[in-house]
Design goal:
heterodimer, A: alpha/beta, B: alpha+beta, 3 domains, disordered C terminus
Chain lengths: 152, 489
Amino acid sequence: MKTLILGLGSSILSDDSIGLFVARALGSRLGDRDDVEVVENEEGGFSLLEESLGYDRLIVVDSIMIGDALGTMTRFGLKELARTIHACSPHGMNLATVMEFGRRQGLDVPEETIIYAIEVRDVLTFGERPCPELELGIDNFVETIASEIFPD
Amino acid sequence: MKRRVTIDPITRLEGHGKIEIFLDKSGDVENAYFQVPELRGFEKFSEGRMCEEMPRITPKICGVCPMAHHMAATKTLDDLYKVEPTYTARLIRELTYNAFTFEDHALHFYFLGGPDFVVGPDAPAAERNILGVIAKVGLEIGGQVIDIRKRVRNIITILGGRVIHPVSGLPGGVSRGLTKENYDEFVKTAADAVEFAKFTLQLFDDIVLKNKSYLDLIVGDVYKHETYYMGLVTENNEVDFYDGMVRVVDPAGKEFVKFKARDYLKHISEHVEPWSYIKFPFLKKIGWRGFVDGADSGVYRVAPLARLNASERMRTPEAQVAREAMFETLGRPAHNTLAFHWARLVEILQAAERMVEIMADPEIMGDDLRNLPTETPTEGIGIVEAPRGTLIHHYKTDERGVITQAKLMVATVHNAAPICMSVERAARGLIKGGVVNDGLLNMVEMAFRAYDPCFGCATHSLPGQMPLEVLVKDQDGNIVKRLSQFIRE
């Protein structure tokens, strides 16, 4: 099974970069596997569909702000995102929408999508690193994700 | 009893816009505020960096407009070092930039703005998306969108070095030219882009303009503001996305001022409101008169409709025909906010036609890609027309080219006051006597979606879009009604 790990975020907006950092660390952790590819994506929207074509499984690591404690990592699938399939975004489409679009167009979209979202605090201040609390958590995020997606 | 309606994106509490609508005692709209969160610390972040880094760093601000920031930064470097790009380098920049404008606009129409019309403004929210569009127009068109986007983005990837965060811009030129290997493919892509743009305009004509209720919505008063308009123009006052003078016309369409990029601070000032971090730009000579339109108000608009209003004509022939058709229906200047969508399609055609024109210029294959800078840098200003409006970069450096001050003025900031006005107008049109229904969400969204705004520029947030919550509160803060499109229960 071919897996794509997609780290999302902006690398210059402080905590927003946490998905990129975790994906990078996952790449090092899983470096010896030939069934995994790690990609960092700072764009989002439609490009998520294009990136993920041809893989059996998509693992997304991203930041989120839903009022949880800083550093809380939530796992969910496209089903949980499906409720948000509509066009309210002024500048981007969500993952569920683009994946469903790809599916209906007959494209080779992954059969399974798992999303790991890490609660962050500041995505508006310019900075090339997430806050220290999040940085300290990177190893834990990586271990959790790695053990869940490759339990063997 | 006073009531407050809050439309709040809850997954990005700070990261996106927020709308608050205040109702008066009789339940009608008293005021509406559209708040755009401001990115913080850009100046400090830039300070001490070599200015040559800016075209590589600033595209990372926004995953939506990376090429616009790259090009504005590159042009700012030209100005810093007082060096012009070679003719071939300019062609390559323009080709890349028109390719970017084409694919960004096309994506907006089919995926973001179009669903309001193609699926219908009254359709359930769950259907107002690309899936609804495809259900209506067919899978084949979906395939065409995917195909042309992929091929146009290939031009950006090859000439920009990378598609998302381009790296090719250098002061005085570009780092990479066009090779024979890509030439035929690019010529074909440009020609196909023209056909796709014409097809899209026809689709808009068939589905939107021939539907009386949609046309009524476009020309109706709910989405109309008579403002000044700003955009880059060529020496012949034609629309140009990459370069030119900044031209401003008044609400009657008469030229108000035309100025060079480096004089922008002589003509634009910024108003501060206590409820927003964003400063609201206005025309200095007119002054700030509040969130009102008309010739006495310094509020101006940018982005596609503004560019068409601020120019005398399009730069390419078929786009000019499409422009005339639009003004024939709407009058000129067109003040209808929803016509931003229409103008965007006229611009798609110009972007595609420009790609064809540039590919037909033999110099596109030239190898003179750069004029080496020799001047000592001090201060530079670069302006481009981003898909969502005028984008200004302004840097100061020491004699080594190390940044000492940096300022950006992005399109959504130019449009911040008009967006507030449009949201208020839409809310007034919909909310009467305290009745707030589900349609508020989309009517208000339509008002600001037409501008294609970019908010906090953190582009990818999960769930990846802007969920809205509407809270109707009484004077004591009690929620009397709650509407939502995505709420984490």
